[in-house]
Each structure stands twice: as C-alpha cells, then as structure tokens.
Design a protein that fits this description.
The complex is a heterodimer of chains A (214) and B (380). With 214 residues, chain A is mainly alpha-helical. Chain A has one domain (31-205). Chain A contains ten helices and no strands. In chain A, helix 1 (9-16) runs parallel beside helix 8. Chain A is globular and about 65 Å long. The termini of chain A are far apart. Chain B is mainly alpha-helical. Chain B has one domain. Helix content of chain B is 65%, strand content 0%. Chain B contains 16 helices and no strands. In chain B, helix 11 packs parallel to helix 14 (303-310). The termini of chain B are far apart. Classes of the chains: A mainly alpha (214), B mainly alpha (380). Chains A and B meet through helix 10 of A and helix 6, helix 7 and helix 8 of B.
C-alpha cells in the first residue's frame, strides 16, 4: 500500500470536487432547507457556512478516528452524538462572540444537526477513510455548501435590500434617484428557491458533465 | 406586401444552412411566417390541414381583447380627468388613456419577444406565437402607473421562469401573464396595490373627496363599494386597465365562444363557482363584505377578466372536459374566498387561477382514472 502525501493530486480532488462537479447543494441537492432559510443577507450566510465548515470537518475527523471502534449497528446514533456535541459548541461560541448574528440565525444553528450534508459525508466518507482525507473531504464539502450560500445570499441581499453586508451599496450608487425600487420578492423564500434553480441552470450550462445523456 | 416579400426573399440565403447568419434562422423564420403563409409542407406522418393554426388562434384572442383594451384606455382618461376635476370629451379621455397605455404595450412586446427570440436562437427552435396574447394581457392587468422598468423586469421573469424553463410555449404549468403580475405584486407591492396606483393623477392634485381605492378595497374595509351595479357592469371604476368593464369583457367572451377558441365549460364554471361562494357568504353574513350581492363579486376586480381570458388558457387549464368544470368551479370559489377572508389580498382572482393551474394536471389525472374505471366495469 503506497502512502501518498496529504496534498497529493488525488487528495486535492477531495477538496475541489464538491465545489463544482459534486456540489452538495446544486448537484446532490442536500441541505436545501438551510440554504433557503438563511440567505436573505450575506452576513448570516457566511457565518452559517463557517459553522457548517467547523462542524463538518471536525465531525469527519472524529468519526474517521473512531471508524474501527463504532459497531455498525449503532453508527448513526454515534454520528448524531458527535454532530450534536459540535453544534452545541458552535452555537455557544456564536452566542458569545456574534450575538446579533446568532439571534438572526436562531433555530437554524441547531438545525445544522439535521443538515443532510453532514450526515451524508460521515456515512459516505468518514466511515471508510483516514482522518486526513476525511478532513479534506469535510472542508471541500463545506466550501461547496458555503459558496452556493454566498452566491444566493449575494443576489438576495443586493436585489432585495439594496445592501451588501448591511452596507447600502445601491444607495451610494444613487440608483434610487433614477426610480429604482428594492425587489421585495427577493426577501421571500420562494425567490431563494428560484435563485438556486437559476444557479443550477447556469452551472449545468457551463459543466457538461452534469447533464444526463438522453 | 410585395415589398416585404422582396426584402425577405433577398435576405433569405443568409439565414439558410451555410449562410452567414445561420444561427439567426429562428428569428427570420418567425418574421417570414408572421407575414406570409409559409410554403413548406410536412414531410412525414399523417397530418390534418386546418385553417386554425396557433397564429390564428392567438390573433383571435388578441381581437377579443380589443373591446376591453379600448374601454380601458377611455376609462383611464375618464378617471384621470374626473380625479383632477377637469372637463373631458369621449375623444380626449380616450387619447389620454391611449398615450398612457401605448408605452406599456410596446415595452411588454419588445421585452417579451426579445427574450423569446433569444431563447429560440440559442436553442435552435422556431419562435412560437404564444407571446402574442401574453404580451397583450400583461399590460392589461397592470395598474396604469406601473413604471416601465418594473413591467420589463416582470415580463423577463414571466417569460424565463414562467415559460422558458419548462420548455417554452405549450409546456408552461402556470399562466405567464399572471406570473408576471404575481411577481410584481410580491416584488413591488406599493406599486401594485393600495389606493394610489389605479388612477393617474399626474402630480397628485385632486378634487375634494377623491378616493383612488378600487371598489374591492373599499368593500374589504367598509363593506360598501361606493358604486352601483350598473357602474360596475359598464366599468367606470378604478382598477387594472383591462379588467374594469364586464361589458367589454363580455363582448370578448362572445368572440371567443363563437369562434370556439375558449372553453365555455371553464368560463361558465368559474362564474358559477364565484356566484355559489358569494351566495354561501350571504347565508353566513358575518360582516358587511359577506353580505354583498354575489353578482357584484362577478363584476368587480379581475373576476370577469380572469374567467374569460386567463382561466381559459388552453395550456395551463385542465385538458379534460370534466376537469375543466371542476377546476373552473374551484377557481371561482377560491377567488371569492381569498377576497373575503384575506385582507392582505383584496383581489383573489390572480392567486386562485395560479393555484388551480398547478392543480389542473392532478385533476386531469383523477378524471382520466375515473373514466378508465367506469369503462373497465363495462368489460367485466
């Protein structure tokens, strides 16, 4: 068995694949619920992405370390305990340091536990791979999750409230004097779904690998 | 006409296979078949030759819309001059309204057809005529003062998200014109509802006692529309441009029914549903809005317009005869239900039709299933 280094080409693919070809949101269509709920503004979306990144990569490493000890019959409950412990940690940290964002995210931090991406990666990857690889896989998938969150939140905040990170971009550009109005529909959840759909549409135009052959 | 033919013939080679502008062929094809009867014939399979093709169907609907459109133009002028307290004649009111309405129609067609042409060219299919009607419907269900760029945004949204993502004309599950209106309604509510948008008052100088609210909004707040039944029927009331006159819409309905383009089942059942629901509310009578004459429900707001021109859309309506009756009836019931129960939406017709558009395939599924079951019984 040849030992390849942590940053070999094969391992880097673990990082880059979930960004496009195997994106957890747009290709596997997992974690949609949170993607719709917290993308009204950029700041909570980014905090959410970082929280998921912490939970997913640490949980991946922990489960990977424990993978030979966990009896397969009770593996789901063990995974759940690990995820839940991490989510509570993250929740406490958010409450301590960015209380306003934590309030905005409200129940959705707790709901990271039910985010299918995390459970899916633990089941599909961490249980069968070494901790190093599992860490990279966790990072890659949370990047893939985060990037979609940020794209959707960018358009929703810009068009819906005319701001970015709370900074009134459109007002400083002076488009309101020309008669421009914020699009109230972008703030509503249906528009998150439609924006996500458009992102998937554009991705499939660019990436022919994703298009099913007829 | 000869001139057009010559121009088309002279540029034709560029658009055919191997020509410089081969990619633009769908656009050329659209113009050629719009102006002239195409000379190509089907190459395989059996086919029925009928004078009524998609283009003629669409043109008939546009013609049926004309009475409501012309009345709407006059009504816009009439309301404007009354609001600011000026004298007007039939002609001056009509011209004022026409000048207000024309930009909306032009923007709607230009933007909508632009998007359609772009999709047709990028996908290599021919441009469909579906937008001819949609493009006329959209300005007619807008308040007269809607900013042009908002209209353009909603048209783009409706054509792309409402139609093209499903595969274009004939594949959409929701009425594109109503999709445009629903988009505007939720995106820019202050421009689509309330009592400021329905009557053009230029710079806001109005006569004493002026109210710009629609009769429906008045009914929801006070239980009194402030208009007589006859005024509602003729349509001298504030509202979206095309929807106010039940009389003009009735003329359109007759055109559609005589030519057999719209389904009488849908129309009749929508009106029946609305009437029945109005009667039920009369029996209940918990507030003044519930006690109004059920006929007023059919005359007010977009009910008649929706029943005649929107619910009958052959693509999004139910495909089976029994389904048409069920879906139509439910549209009528829901529209009145939303009006009376939900103060946030004084007009329920848009929601009711869009909602039942989504359920039409399900209704069809069960209607067909029931038919199969019934006939199977005969065999066994």
């Amino acid at each position: 068995m040849s030992k390849d280094s942590l940053f070999s080409k094969k391992n880097m693919k673990l990082l880059s694949d979930p960004l496009n070809d195997n994106n957890p949101i747009t290709v596997q269509v997992l974690g949609i619920c949170s993607a719709l709920a917290i993308t009204v503004q950029l700041k909570p979306a980014i905090v959410m992405a970082i929280s998921v990144m912490v939970v997913l990569s640490v949980a991946n490493v922990l489960i990977s370390l424990l993978r030979n000890l966990i009896p397969s019959r009770i593996r789901i409950i063990v995974q759940l305990v690990v995820i839940a412990a991490l989510v509570i940690l993250v929740d406490q940290v958010l409450k301590a340091f960015v209380y306003d964002v934590s309030k905005e995210l409200s129940v959705f931090v707790g709901l990271i536990i039910t985010n299918c991406i995390i459970m899916g990666r633990l089941e599909a990857f961490a249980l069968g791979n070494t901790p190093g690889k599992a860490f990279l896989d966790g990072l890659g998938n949370s990047f893939g999750y985060g990037i979609i969150l940020i794209i959707v939140a960018f358009f929703r905040e810009l068009l819906g409230s005319g701001t970015l990170f709370g900074f009134p971009v459109l007002e400083s550009l002076g488009v309101y004097e020309l008669g421009y109005e914020n699009n109230g529909m972008m703030i509503l959840p249906p528009m998150a779904l439609i924006t996500l759909g458009v992102v998937i549409w554009i991705q499939r135009i660019k990436n022919s690998k994703l298009v099913e052959s007829k | 006409m000869k001139l057009f033919k010559n121009i088309l013939e002279s540029v034709k080679p560029h658009f055919m296979e191997g020509g410089k502008l081969e990619k633009m062929h769908p656009a050329y094809d659209a113009f050629e078949t719009f102006l002239f009867v195409p000379d190509h014939t089907t190459k395989a399979g059996s086919h029925i030759r009928d004078a009524i093709d998609l283009k003629r169907t669409m043109i008939t609907v546009v013609l049926a819309l004309m009475p409501a459109l012309f009345f709407g133009m006059w009504n816009v002028g009439q309301l404007h001059f009354t609001a600011i307290g000026e004298e007007f004649t039939l002609m001056s009111a009509f011209i004022f309204g026409a000048l207000k309405m024309l930009p909306l129609i032009i923007v709607s067609y230009a933007v909508g057809l632009g998007v359609e042409f772009a999709f047709a060219i990028s996908r290599g299919h021919s441009v469909n005529e579906g937008y001819l009607v949609t493009g006329m419907l959209i300005p007619m269900i807008m308040p007269i003062d809607v900013p042009l760029w908002m209209l353009a945004v909603s048209v783009i949204f409706a054509v792309i998200i409402g139609k093209e993502v499903f595969g274009g004309t004939g594949m959409n599950i929701m009425n594109p014109a109503l999709t445009a209106r629903a988009f505007l309604f939720f995106a820019y509510p202050s421009f689509m509802s309330g009592d400021k948008v329905w009557i053009n008052t230029a710079d806001g100088v109005t006569v004493d006692g002026f109210s710009g609210a629609t009769p429906l909004a008045d009914l929801a707040s006070s239980g009194d529309s402030g208009y007589s039944m006859m005024e509602m029927f003729i349509g001298m009331i504030p509202g979206s441009v095309g929807e106010t006159s039940a009389l003009a819409i009735l003329i359109g309905a007759v055109i559609l029914l005589v030519t057999g383009i719209a389904s009488w089942r849908t129309m009749l059942s929508v009106f029946a549903g609305g009437y029945v629901m109005g009667l039920l509310f009369n029996l209940w009578g918990a507030n003044p809005f519930m006690e109004i004459d059920p006929l007023a429900h059919l005359l007010l707001g977009g009910f008649a317009f929706g029943a005649v021109f929107m619910a009958t859309d052959p693509v999004t309506a139910s495909q089976t005869n029994r389904g048409k009756i069920i879906v139509g009836f439910l549209i009528g019931i829901l529209a009145v239900l939303i009006r009376v129960f939900n103060p946030a939406y004084p007009e329920g017709m848009m929601m009711a039709i869009l909602f039942m558009n989504v359920f039409a395939p399900l209704v069809d599924h069960y209607v067909i299933g029931a038919n199969i079951k019934r006939r199977l019984k005969r065999v066994n």
